[in-house]
Amino acid sequence: MSADQPTILVVEDELAQREVLSYNLEAEGLRVLKAENGEEALLLVAEEAPDVIVLDWMMPNLSGIEVCRQLKTRPETRAIPIIMLSARSEEVDRVRGLETGADDYVVKPYSVAELMARVRNQLRRVRPSSVGQRLEFEDIVLDAETYRVTRAGTPIKLGPTEFRLLSTFMEKPGRVWSREQLLDRVWGRDIYVDTRTVDVHVGRLRKALTRDGGSDPLRTVRGAGYSIG
Fold first, then answer.
1. What CATH topology corresponds to 7-126?
2. Beta strands in 124-212 (DSSP E)
3. Per CATH, domain 132-228 is 3.50.50.60
4. Is 125 in a helix, a strand, or coil?
5. Angle at 156 between CA 153 and CA 161, to 5 degrees
6. How confident is the model at residue 184 (pLDDT cuts 50, 70, 90)?
7. For residues 181-220, b (16+ Cβ closer than 10 Å) or e, as one string?
8. Quick check: bond before 173 cis, omega within 30?
């Protein structure tokens, strides 16, 4: 499984619906986490922040709207896009869902193709390189589709790990990533890698980016991690 594969959390209490969604998301090349109720969803998000959450409104005990409210009030999960699924088609319900913090609202029964398009749309916002986007920072251009990087028009050769590191940095310029966060995003949670490995690969990336004399765009934040810009 690719370490930089986007992760989608599907929260749906109906088994059949949950499996259909999961199957279609995995067919799109996405990694899927599954929760059958709101409590399980909150636990999963605390363990591993997904890139996008597909969340059913009507669930026993803890409703989707309450899960959404809790996630959107926490600083560490506020930015995760939530697509709310609901059989409630009235405008007042849609407004309530969006006001609670949902980023999108899909009425049941829905077309799976439409829902996949909406998931891709949210991914485009938070993980542009995962949907083949071109990223730019100052004079650096990264094309995720062709797997090419240039600086001031000059091609830069990067290994797969350095490419994933650079795309992570360029998706969110200015954001400081800790070594642990970079390990999760670039190497994957299931692989044990020493945090010092991150320093080695950041060093290689720095060397590649400054090989032709450009200034170093990467910033080391003592005690916190690394960022670009």
1. Rossmann fold (3.40.50)
2. 134-137, 140-143, 148-151, 154-156
3. no
4. helix
5. 140
6. confident
7. bbbbbbbeeeeebeeeebeebbeebbebbeeeeeeebbee
8. no
Residues spanned by CATH 3.40.50.2300 within the chain? 7-126
* b/e 129-149 (16+ beta carbons within 10 angstroms → b): bbeebebebeebbbebeeeeb
Question: By the 8 A CB rule, do 144 and 158 touch?
Answer: no
* pTM score of the predicted model: 0.65
| CATH 1.10.10.10 placement within the chain | 132-228
Are the C-beta atoms of 46 and 76 separated by less than 8 Å? no
Q: In the numeric block, which tokens belong to residue 194?
A: 């020493």
* pLDDT of residue 86 exceeding 70: yes
